[in-house]
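Revision sheet: structure tokens.
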Amino acid sequence: MLQLVADTLKLILRPPAQVDMPHHGRLATLFVALQAVPPPRPAHEIEDEIWAIWTSHGDAALEARMQRAISAIARRRLAEGKTILDALIDTAPDWAEAWNKRATLHYLAQRDLQSIADIHRTLELEPRHFGAICGFAQICLRQGEIAAAIEAFVAALNLNPHLDGVRAMLAQLAPKPPRHLN
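Predicted:
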């Protein structure tokens, strides 16, 4: 597990590479908007649009299955959600959000190793996925890897400086925040 944690942290800390994925240009524009001070519109609207793009797919049937998986997770029907997500990943292995949702499911089931593996794949596909990075940080906290959690939280804030809960968590973990923190 330690090697997977280290490898995933390296992935988080490297500069985001250009990714060739659907909606890449639109996502790039939204990430620039998140960095603007002040943002051109409320940050939560920009975040919502990013999440909508991440959960969308060119195939309406796959999107419907994703919504069923999200609903199953919300209802804590983890076995049902996992079955749906496993099938989605088999069908659309390059859909970062399918990997991220399965990582969330594993996290909720306290299967940290499987969650980190899915987070790793999510970040290979979408290096700017601040949600996956925050999930990784939460697992690090649960495992007692405080330094790794702090680095991951800082990386998430560098992508999206409007994560107020993350900022509050960092204030508790590291009362003197690193200089590159927004």
